Fold:
Amino acid sequence: MNRFLVLPLLALAGLTFDTSLRAETAPPGRKPNVLLICVDDLKPVLGCYGDPLAKTPNLDRLAARGMRFDLAYCNQAVCAPSRNNLMVGSRSTTLGVYSLGTHFRKAAPDAVTLLQYFMRHGYRTEGIGKIFHIGHGNHDDPASWSVPFQPDKVVEYALPENSANGQLTREEAYFTNQKLGQNRELPRGAAWEMTDLPDNTYADGRIAEEGIRRLRAAAARPEQPLFLALGFVKPHLPFCAPKKYWDLHDRKAFKLAEQTQPPVGAPRYAGKTLGELNQYTPVPEQPPLSEDLQRTLIHGYYAATSFMDAQVGRVLDELDRLGLSERTIIVLWGDNGWHFGDHGAWTKHTNYEQANRIPLMIVAPGVTKPGSHTRQLTETVDLYPTLVELAGLPAPEVPQKLDGVSLVPVLKNPEVRVRDHAYHAFPRHRAGQPIIGRAIRTERYRLVEWKKPGAPRDTADFELYDYQSDPLESTNLASRLPAVVENLSRVLARHPEAKPEITN
Ligand SMILES: [Ca+2]
Structure:
Protein backbone atom coordinates (compact mmCIF):
# COMPACT_ATOMS: atom_id res chain seq x y z
CA MET A 1 0.00 0.00 0.00
CA ASN A 2 1.05 3.49 -0.68
CA ARG A 3 0.56 6.47 1.56
CA PHE A 4 -0.46 8.55 -1.42
CA LEU A 5 -3.73 6.68 -1.50
CA VAL A 6 -4.68 9.30 1.02
CA LEU A 7 -4.60 12.02 -1.62
CA PRO A 8 -7.82 11.14 -3.44
CA LEU A 9 -9.61 10.99 -0.11
CA LEU A 10 -8.44 14.44 0.80
CA ALA A 11 -9.27 15.72 -2.67
CA LEU A 12 -12.79 14.40 -2.20
CA ALA A 13 -12.96 16.28 1.04
CA GLY A 14 -12.02 19.44 -0.85
CA LEU A 15 -8.63 19.70 0.84
CA THR A 16 -5.09 19.42 -0.30
CA PHE A 17 -2.59 17.27 1.54
CA ASP A 18 -0.48 20.21 2.65
CA THR A 19 -3.13 22.57 3.88
CA SER A 20 -4.99 19.84 5.74
CA LEU A 21 -1.82 18.93 7.58
CA ARG A 22 -1.03 22.50 8.39
CA ALA A 23 -4.54 23.18 9.54
CA GLU A 24 -4.94 20.05 11.61
CA THR A 25 -1.57 19.30 13.08
CA ALA A 26 0.04 22.62 13.76
CA PRO A 27 -2.23 25.42 14.93
CA PRO A 28 -0.41 28.65 14.11
CA GLY A 29 1.59 30.12 16.92
CA ARG A 30 1.14 27.34 19.39
CA LYS A 31 2.72 23.93 19.28
CA PRO A 32 0.97 21.03 20.99
CA ASN A 33 2.49 19.43 24.06
CA VAL A 34 3.48 15.78 23.86
CA LEU A 35 2.84 13.32 26.66
CA LEU A 36 4.65 10.08 25.83
CA ILE A 37 3.69 7.27 28.21
CA CYS A 38 6.09 4.34 27.97
CA VAL A 39 5.14 1.19 29.85
CA ASP A 40 7.66 -1.53 30.58
CA ASP A 41 6.77 -5.04 29.36
CA LEU A 42 3.12 -4.18 28.71
CA LYS A 43 1.36 -6.51 26.30
CA PRO A 44 -2.13 -5.64 25.07
CA VAL A 45 -3.98 -7.42 27.87
CA LEU A 46 -6.16 -4.38 28.37
CA GLY A 47 -9.90 -3.89 28.45
CA CYS A 48 -9.75 -1.65 25.39
CA TYR A 49 -8.00 -4.46 23.47
CA GLY A 50 -10.88 -6.81 24.28
CA ASP A 51 -9.42 -8.65 27.27
CA PRO A 52 -12.40 -9.40 29.53
CA LEU A 53 -10.16 -10.15 32.54
CA ALA A 54 -8.20 -6.89 32.46
CA LYS A 55 -9.07 -4.11 34.87
CA THR A 56 -7.65 -1.10 33.08
CA PRO A 57 -10.32 1.64 33.14
CA ASN A 58 -7.83 4.46 32.63
CA LEU A 59 -6.09 3.07 29.57
CA ASP A 60 -9.55 2.17 28.29
CA ARG A 61 -10.69 5.77 28.56
CA LEU A 62 -7.47 6.91 26.90
CA ALA A 63 -8.25 4.58 23.98
CA ALA A 64 -11.73 6.05 23.82
CA ARG A 65 -10.21 9.47 23.15
CA GLY A 66 -8.10 8.52 20.14
CA MET A 67 -6.83 5.67 17.99
CA ARG A 68 -5.91 2.16 19.07
CA PHE A 69 -3.48 0.21 16.88
CA ASP A 70 -4.42 -3.47 16.85
CA LEU A 71 -1.36 -4.72 14.97
CA ALA A 72 1.49 -2.78 16.57
CA TYR A 73 4.88 -4.45 17.07
CA CYS A 74 8.11 -3.59 18.79
CA ASN A 75 11.26 -3.81 16.68
CA GLN A 76 13.06 -5.98 19.22
CA ALA A 77 11.43 -7.66 22.21
CA VAL A 78 13.68 -6.45 24.99
CA CYS A 79 13.92 -3.19 26.95
CA ALA A 80 17.06 -1.30 25.91
CA PRO A 81 16.99 -1.95 22.15
CA SER A 82 13.25 -1.30 21.97
CA ARG A 83 13.72 2.07 23.66
CA ASN A 84 16.56 2.88 21.26
CA ASN A 85 14.21 2.06 18.39
CA LEU A 86 11.67 4.52 19.79
CA MET A 87 14.03 7.36 20.53
CA VAL A 88 16.57 7.04 17.70
CA GLY A 89 13.94 6.03 15.15
CA SER A 90 16.22 3.28 13.81
CA ARG A 91 15.75 -0.47 14.01
CA SER A 92 18.23 -2.60 15.95
CA THR A 93 19.37 -4.15 12.67
CA THR A 94 20.20 -0.66 11.38
CA LEU A 95 22.12 0.31 14.52
CA GLY A 96 23.79 -3.04 15.24
CA VAL A 97 22.75 -2.69 18.88
CA TYR A 98 20.86 -5.70 20.21
CA SER A 99 21.90 -5.91 23.85
CA LEU A 100 21.02 -4.22 27.11
CA GLY A 101 24.48 -2.91 27.85
CA THR A 102 25.42 -1.08 24.62
CA HIS A 103 24.52 2.59 24.38
CA PHE A 104 23.03 3.60 21.03
CA ARG A 105 25.62 6.38 20.65
CA LYS A 106 28.26 3.71 20.30
CA ALA A 107 26.61 2.97 16.95
CA ALA A 108 25.28 6.42 16.08
CA PRO A 109 27.31 9.04 17.98
CA ASP A 110 25.62 12.02 16.35
CA ALA A 111 22.08 10.66 16.28
CA VAL A 112 19.42 13.25 16.95
CA THR A 113 16.92 11.56 19.21
CA LEU A 114 13.21 12.23 19.00
CA LEU A 115 13.58 14.30 22.16
CA GLN A 116 16.51 16.27 20.77
CA TYR A 117 14.59 16.95 17.59
CA PHE A 118 11.72 18.44 19.57
CA MET A 119 14.18 20.42 21.70
CA ARG A 120 15.68 21.90 18.54
CA HIS A 121 12.24 23.13 17.64
CA GLY A 122 11.58 24.94 20.87
CA TYR A 123 10.33 22.17 23.13
CA ARG A 124 11.28 21.61 26.71
CA THR A 125 11.90 17.88 27.15
CA GLU A 126 11.54 16.21 30.51
CA GLY A 127 11.64 12.57 31.52
CA ILE A 128 10.80 10.52 34.60
CA GLY A 129 10.97 6.81 35.45
CA LYS A 130 12.34 4.52 32.75
CA ILE A 131 12.83 5.90 29.23
CA PHE A 132 16.29 4.97 27.99
CA HIS A 133 17.53 1.78 29.56
CA ILE A 134 19.75 2.56 32.53
CA GLY A 135 21.70 -0.28 34.10
CA HIS A 136 23.58 -3.34 32.85
CA GLY A 137 26.44 -0.99 32.02
CA ASN A 138 24.13 1.25 30.00
CA HIS A 139 23.27 4.83 30.82
CA ASP A 140 20.89 7.67 30.07
CA ASP A 141 21.28 10.09 27.18
CA PRO A 142 21.75 13.52 28.82
CA ALA A 143 21.71 15.29 25.43
CA SER A 144 18.02 14.35 25.09
CA TRP A 145 16.75 16.28 28.07
CA SER A 146 16.23 19.99 28.80
CA VAL A 147 16.46 19.20 32.52
CA PRO A 148 18.20 16.16 34.02
CA PHE A 149 16.28 12.92 33.64
CA GLN A 150 14.78 11.60 36.86
CA PRO A 151 15.08 7.81 36.99
CA ASP A 152 13.22 5.45 39.29
CA LYS A 153 13.55 1.78 40.21
CA VAL A 154 12.24 -1.13 38.17
CA VAL A 155 13.06 -3.70 40.83
CA GLU A 156 12.12 -2.70 44.36
CA TYR A 157 10.39 -4.28 47.31
CA ALA A 158 8.58 -2.69 50.21
CA LEU A 159 9.08 -5.74 52.42
CA PRO A 160 12.69 -6.57 53.28
CA GLU A 161 12.09 -10.31 53.24
CA ASN A 162 11.37 -10.11 49.52
CA SER A 163 14.59 -8.48 48.43
CA ALA A 164 17.80 -10.16 47.56
CA ASN A 165 21.25 -8.71 47.78
CA GLY A 166 22.13 -6.89 44.61
CA GLN A 167 19.15 -6.17 42.42
CA LEU A 168 19.78 -5.53 38.78
CA THR A 169 21.27 -7.77 36.19
CA ARG A 170 18.45 -10.23 35.81
CA GLU A 171 17.92 -9.52 32.15
CA GLU A 172 21.62 -9.06 31.54
CA ALA A 173 22.19 -12.37 33.24
CA TYR A 174 19.78 -13.94 30.83
CA PHE A 175 21.79 -12.65 27.87
CA THR A 176 25.10 -13.59 29.44
CA ASN A 177 23.87 -17.05 30.25
CA GLN A 178 22.52 -17.51 26.78
CA LYS A 179 25.88 -16.62 25.28
CA LEU A 180 27.79 -18.78 27.68
CA GLY A 181 25.23 -21.56 27.51
CA GLN A 182 25.16 -21.83 31.27
CA ASN A 183 23.18 -20.74 34.24
CA ARG A 184 24.94 -18.53 36.66
CA GLU A 185 23.93 -18.43 40.28
CA LEU A 186 22.39 -15.03 40.90
CA PRO A 187 20.97 -13.20 43.84
CA ARG A 188 17.22 -13.50 43.76
CA GLY A 189 14.31 -11.47 44.95
CA ALA A 190 10.66 -12.41 45.02
CA ALA A 191 8.76 -12.58 41.72
CA TRP A 192 5.86 -10.65 43.28
CA GLU A 193 4.80 -8.68 46.30
CA MET A 194 1.38 -7.82 47.65
CA THR A 195 1.14 -5.12 50.32
CA ASP A 196 -1.45 -2.91 51.95
CA LEU A 197 0.76 0.12 51.42
CA PRO A 198 -0.09 3.31 49.50
CA ASP A 199 0.52 3.60 45.73
CA ASN A 200 3.50 5.88 46.15
CA THR A 201 5.35 3.08 47.93
CA TYR A 202 6.33 1.90 44.47
CA ALA A 203 8.00 3.68 41.57
CA ASP A 204 4.92 4.05 39.37
CA GLY A 205 3.10 5.97 42.11
CA ARG A 206 6.04 8.33 42.50
CA ILE A 207 6.43 8.68 38.72
CA ALA A 208 2.77 9.74 38.42
CA GLU A 209 3.16 12.22 41.26
CA GLU A 210 6.26 13.78 39.73
CA GLY A 211 4.57 13.80 36.31
CA ILE A 212 1.68 15.75 37.81
CA ARG A 213 4.15 18.27 39.26
CA ARG A 214 5.77 18.71 35.86
CA LEU A 215 2.40 19.22 34.15
CA ARG A 216 1.47 21.90 36.67
CA ALA A 217 4.76 23.68 36.02
CA ALA A 218 4.15 23.44 32.28
CA ALA A 219 0.67 24.91 32.64
CA ALA A 220 2.25 27.94 34.28
CA ARG A 221 4.71 28.25 31.37
CA PRO A 222 2.39 28.29 28.35
CA GLU A 223 4.91 30.03 26.10
CA GLN A 224 7.02 26.87 25.81
CA PRO A 225 5.62 23.54 24.62
CA LEU A 226 6.44 20.49 26.74
CA PHE A 227 7.49 17.01 25.66
CA LEU A 228 7.04 14.93 28.80
CA ALA A 229 8.18 11.30 28.69
CA LEU A 230 6.79 9.24 31.56
CA GLY A 231 8.26 5.76 31.83
CA PHE A 232 6.12 3.50 34.02
CA VAL A 233 7.95 0.38 35.18
CA LYS A 234 5.14 -2.10 35.84
CA PRO A 235 4.13 -4.72 34.75
CA HIS A 236 7.86 -5.50 34.45
CA LEU A 237 8.97 -8.15 36.95
CA PRO A 238 8.79 -8.33 39.93
CA PHE A 239 5.02 -7.94 40.17
CA CYS A 240 4.95 -5.66 43.20
CA ALA A 241 1.67 -3.82 43.71
CA PRO A 242 -0.65 -2.80 46.53
CA LYS A 243 -3.12 -5.51 47.50
CA LYS A 244 -6.17 -3.59 46.28
CA TYR A 245 -4.98 -4.15 42.69
CA TRP A 246 -4.56 -7.87 43.27
CA ASP A 247 -8.05 -7.94 44.75
CA LEU A 248 -9.53 -6.62 41.50
CA HIS A 249 -8.84 -10.00 39.91
CA ASP A 250 -10.15 -13.53 40.37
CA ARG A 251 -7.11 -15.75 39.99
CA LYS A 252 -9.30 -18.73 39.12
CA ALA A 253 -10.50 -16.93 35.99
CA PHE A 254 -7.07 -16.82 34.32
CA LYS A 255 -6.51 -19.39 31.61
CA LEU A 256 -3.14 -21.06 31.33
CA ALA A 257 -1.43 -21.31 27.95
CA GLU A 258 -2.90 -23.93 25.60
CA GLN A 259 0.15 -24.30 23.41
CA THR A 260 2.93 -25.12 25.87
CA GLN A 261 5.47 -26.65 23.48
CA PRO A 262 7.67 -24.81 20.98
CA PRO A 263 6.23 -24.78 17.45
CA VAL A 264 6.66 -28.11 15.68
CA GLY A 265 9.56 -27.81 13.26
CA ALA A 266 10.99 -24.58 14.72
CA PRO A 267 14.74 -24.28 15.32
CA ARG A 268 15.47 -25.12 18.93
CA TYR A 269 17.38 -21.91 19.51
CA ALA A 270 14.41 -19.75 18.44
CA GLY A 271 12.51 -20.43 21.66
CA LYS A 272 13.21 -19.91 25.31
CA THR A 273 11.83 -21.13 28.63
CA LEU A 274 12.27 -19.36 31.97
CA GLY A 275 15.20 -16.97 31.33
CA GLU A 276 14.85 -13.74 33.38
CA LEU A 277 11.85 -15.18 35.28
CA ASN A 278 13.97 -17.84 36.97
CA GLN A 279 16.10 -15.19 38.62
CA TYR A 280 13.19 -14.58 40.98
CA THR A 281 11.94 -16.76 43.80
CA PRO A 282 10.15 -19.14 43.99
CA VAL A 283 10.58 -19.82 40.28
CA PRO A 284 12.60 -22.98 39.63
CA GLU A 285 15.70 -22.89 37.46
CA GLN A 286 14.12 -25.20 34.87
CA PRO A 287 10.55 -25.93 33.73
CA PRO A 288 7.94 -27.07 34.50
CA LEU A 289 6.13 -24.46 36.55
CA SER A 290 3.28 -25.73 38.69
CA GLU A 291 -0.20 -24.64 37.66
CA ASP A 292 -0.48 -22.72 40.88
CA LEU A 293 2.71 -20.77 40.22
CA GLN A 294 1.67 -20.03 36.63
CA ARG A 295 -1.67 -18.72 37.85
CA THR A 296 -0.01 -16.53 40.47
CA LEU A 297 2.40 -15.07 37.90
CA ILE A 298 -0.43 -14.24 35.51
CA HIS A 299 -2.43 -12.78 38.38
CA GLY A 300 0.61 -10.72 39.35
CA TYR A 301 1.02 -9.40 35.82
CA TYR A 302 -2.64 -8.33 35.67
CA ALA A 303 -2.44 -6.78 39.16
CA ALA A 304 0.72 -4.86 38.30
CA THR A 305 -0.97 -3.69 35.08
CA SER A 306 -4.01 -2.45 37.04
CA PHE A 307 -1.67 -0.63 39.43
CA MET A 308 0.16 1.07 36.55
CA ASP A 309 -3.20 1.87 34.91
CA ALA A 310 -4.36 3.70 38.03
CA GLN A 311 -1.17 5.78 38.06
CA VAL A 312 -1.62 6.72 34.39
CA GLY A 313 -5.17 7.71 35.32
CA ARG A 314 -3.89 10.19 37.93
CA VAL A 315 -1.77 11.88 35.25
CA LEU A 316 -4.62 12.01 32.73
CA ASP A 317 -6.93 13.52 35.36
CA GLU A 318 -4.42 16.26 36.04
CA LEU A 319 -3.96 16.92 32.33
CA ASP A 320 -7.73 17.47 32.11
CA ARG A 321 -7.89 19.51 35.30
CA LEU A 322 -5.19 21.85 34.01
CA GLY A 323 -7.01 22.28 30.72
CA LEU A 324 -4.04 20.91 28.78
CA SER A 325 -5.75 17.93 27.12
CA GLU A 326 -7.00 19.91 24.14
CA ARG A 327 -3.49 20.82 23.11
CA THR A 328 -1.58 17.71 24.13
CA ILE A 329 -0.74 14.74 21.93
CA ILE A 330 -0.80 11.58 24.05
CA VAL A 331 0.95 8.34 23.10
CA LEU A 332 0.71 5.12 25.08
CA TRP A 333 3.37 2.60 24.10
CA GLY A 334 4.50 -0.75 25.53
CA ASP A 335 8.18 -1.52 24.89
CA ASN A 336 7.66 -5.26 24.32
CA GLY A 337 5.09 -8.01 24.83
CA TRP A 338 5.25 -11.01 27.19
CA HIS A 339 4.89 -14.77 27.06
CA PHE A 340 2.51 -16.31 29.61
CA GLY A 341 3.85 -19.82 29.14
CA ASP A 342 2.86 -20.11 25.48
CA HIS A 343 5.51 -22.28 23.74
CA GLY A 344 6.76 -23.01 27.26
CA ALA A 345 8.19 -19.47 27.22
CA TRP A 346 7.95 -16.73 29.84
CA THR A 347 8.89 -13.04 29.62
CA LYS A 348 10.04 -11.75 26.18
CA HIS A 349 13.28 -12.17 24.13
CA THR A 350 11.80 -14.05 21.15
CA ASN A 351 10.57 -13.39 17.63
CA TYR A 352 7.12 -14.84 18.40
CA GLU A 353 3.80 -13.01 18.46
CA GLN A 354 3.32 -12.70 22.20
CA ALA A 355 6.74 -11.13 22.80
CA ASN A 356 6.48 -8.66 19.94
CA ARG A 357 2.90 -7.42 19.83
CA ILE A 358 2.51 -4.24 21.85
CA PRO A 359 -0.24 -1.84 22.80
CA LEU A 360 -0.11 1.48 20.98
CA MET A 361 -2.60 4.30 21.26
CA ILE A 362 -2.37 7.81 19.94
CA VAL A 363 -4.59 10.71 20.92
CA ALA A 364 -4.04 13.71 18.69
CA PRO A 365 -6.61 16.45 19.28
CA GLY A 366 -8.16 17.56 16.02
CA VAL A 367 -6.67 14.61 14.12
CA THR A 368 -7.75 11.30 15.68
CA LYS A 369 -11.38 10.35 15.93
CA PRO A 370 -12.39 9.31 19.45
CA GLY A 371 -12.67 5.56 19.89
CA SER A 372 -11.15 4.73 16.51
CA HIS A 373 -8.96 1.73 15.81
CA THR A 374 -6.99 0.37 12.90
CA ARG A 375 -5.42 -2.82 11.59
CA GLN A 376 -2.55 -0.88 10.07
CA LEU A 377 0.62 -2.85 10.83
CA THR A 378 2.86 -0.57 12.85
CA GLU A 379 6.35 -0.59 14.34
CA THR A 380 7.92 1.31 17.18
CA VAL A 381 10.16 3.23 14.76
CA ASP A 382 7.05 4.77 13.18
CA LEU A 383 6.52 6.96 16.22
CA TYR A 384 9.45 9.29 15.46
CA PRO A 385 8.15 10.58 12.10
CA THR A 386 4.56 10.42 13.34
CA LEU A 387 5.13 12.69 16.32
CA VAL A 388 7.25 15.07 14.27
CA GLU A 389 4.47 15.44 11.71
CA LEU A 390 1.70 15.69 14.31
CA ALA A 391 3.53 18.53 16.03
CA GLY A 392 3.93 20.34 12.71
CA LEU A 393 7.73 20.19 12.81
CA PRO A 394 9.73 20.04 9.55
CA ALA A 395 10.62 16.62 8.13
CA PRO A 396 13.74 15.57 10.02
CA GLU A 397 17.11 15.69 8.36
CA VAL A 398 19.19 13.81 10.89
CA PRO A 399 22.44 11.83 10.69
CA GLN A 400 20.88 8.48 11.60
CA LYS A 401 18.66 6.47 9.28
CA LEU A 402 15.02 6.82 10.26
CA ASP A 403 13.35 3.49 9.50
CA GLY A 404 9.77 4.46 10.27
CA VAL A 405 6.91 5.96 8.30
CA SER A 406 4.50 8.57 9.55
CA LEU A 407 1.18 7.19 10.70
CA VAL A 408 -0.59 10.55 10.38
CA PRO A 409 -2.57 9.48 7.26
CA VAL A 410 -3.83 6.49 9.28
CA LEU A 411 -4.63 8.65 12.28
CA LYS A 412 -6.90 10.65 9.99
CA ASN A 413 -8.44 7.61 8.37
CA PRO A 414 -7.98 4.15 9.91
CA GLU A 415 -8.54 2.46 6.53
CA VAL A 416 -5.57 4.14 4.84
CA ARG A 417 -2.39 2.05 4.69
CA VAL A 418 1.16 3.39 4.88
CA ARG A 419 2.94 0.02 5.14
CA ASP A 420 1.99 -3.60 4.45
CA HIS A 421 4.06 -5.35 7.12
CA ALA A 422 5.90 -4.79 10.37
CA TYR A 423 9.53 -5.75 10.88
CA HIS A 424 11.35 -6.94 13.99
CA ALA A 425 14.46 -8.88 14.91
CA PHE A 426 16.17 -10.76 17.70
CA PRO A 427 19.70 -12.14 18.13
CA ARG A 428 20.52 -15.73 18.99
CA HIS A 429 23.47 -18.09 18.87
CA ARG A 430 23.61 -21.12 16.56
CA ALA A 431 26.44 -23.57 17.12
CA GLY A 432 28.24 -20.88 19.12
CA GLN A 433 28.00 -18.29 16.34
CA PRO A 434 25.92 -15.12 16.62
CA ILE A 435 22.96 -15.03 14.26
CA ILE A 436 20.06 -12.62 13.81
CA GLY A 437 16.45 -13.55 13.23
CA ARG A 438 14.88 -10.91 10.99
CA ALA A 439 11.11 -11.16 10.92
CA ILE A 440 8.27 -9.66 8.97
CA ARG A 441 4.68 -9.77 10.12
CA THR A 442 1.90 -9.29 7.60
CA GLU A 443 -1.80 -9.41 8.45
CA ARG A 444 -1.73 -13.14 7.85
CA TYR A 445 1.82 -14.43 8.21
CA ARG A 446 5.09 -14.10 10.06
CA LEU A 447 8.35 -15.10 8.36
CA VAL A 448 11.56 -15.30 10.37
CA GLU A 449 14.91 -15.72 8.66
CA TRP A 450 17.74 -16.81 10.99
CA LYS A 451 21.30 -16.43 9.75
CA LYS A 452 24.59 -14.72 10.29
CA PRO A 453 24.39 -11.10 9.06
CA GLY A 454 25.59 -10.98 5.47
CA ALA A 455 25.64 -14.76 5.02
CA PRO A 456 24.00 -16.27 1.92
CA ARG A 457 20.32 -17.06 2.05
CA ASP A 458 20.90 -20.81 1.80
CA THR A 459 22.50 -20.73 5.25
CA ALA A 460 19.25 -19.46 6.77
CA ASP A 461 16.71 -21.32 8.86
CA PHE A 462 13.18 -20.14 8.22
CA GLU A 463 10.08 -20.06 10.35
CA LEU A 464 6.66 -19.39 8.84
CA TYR A 465 3.39 -19.02 10.75
CA ASP A 466 -0.10 -18.57 9.36
CA TYR A 467 -2.21 -16.62 11.86
CA GLN A 468 -5.38 -17.35 9.95
CA SER A 469 -5.13 -21.12 10.33
CA ASP A 470 -2.79 -21.34 13.32
CA PRO A 471 -3.05 -18.31 15.62
CA LEU A 472 -1.11 -20.02 18.41
CA GLU A 473 1.97 -20.68 16.23
CA SER A 474 1.79 -24.44 16.77
CA THR A 475 3.61 -25.40 13.57
CA ASN A 476 6.45 -23.97 11.54
CA LEU A 477 5.04 -24.13 8.00
CA ALA A 478 8.22 -23.02 6.18
CA SER A 479 8.95 -26.42 4.61
CA ARG A 480 5.30 -26.99 3.69
CA LEU A 481 4.66 -23.64 2.01
CA PRO A 482 7.79 -22.78 0.01
CA ALA A 483 5.91 -20.40 -2.30
CA VAL A 484 4.76 -18.30 0.66
CA VAL A 485 8.31 -18.30 2.06
CA GLU A 486 9.55 -17.17 -1.34
CA ASN A 487 7.05 -14.31 -1.56
CA LEU A 488 7.68 -13.08 1.96
CA SER A 489 11.45 -13.43 1.49
CA ARG A 490 11.15 -10.94 -1.34
CA VAL A 491 9.52 -8.51 1.10
CA LEU A 492 12.28 -9.15 3.61
CA ALA A 493 14.89 -8.62 0.91
CA ARG A 494 13.67 -5.02 0.56
CA HIS A 495 15.23 -4.40 3.96
CA PRO A 496 18.98 -4.02 4.39
CA GLU A 497 20.97 -6.84 5.94
CA ALA A 498 21.23 -6.79 9.72
CA LYS A 499 24.28 -5.03 11.04
CA PRO A 500 26.43 -7.34 13.16
CA GLU A 501 26.31 -6.56 16.86
CA ILE A 502 28.45 -3.69 18.03
CA THR A 503 30.10 -4.49 21.32
CA ASN A 504 31.25 -2.18 24.05
CA1 LIG B 1 10.63 -4.00 28.62
About this structure: DSSP finds 15 helices and 18 strands in the chain. The domain at 30-257+293-419 is CATH 3.40.720.10 (Alkaline Phosphatase, subunit A). The first strand starts at residue 33 and ends at 39.
